[in-house]
Amino acid sequence: MIILAILLIGFFSGWLANLVLGGGTQPKDWGEVVIAGVAGSFVGGMLGSLIFEGDLGIHPSGLLGSIVGAIIVLAIWRAIRSRR
Question: What pTM does this model have?
Answer without folding.
Answer: 0.74
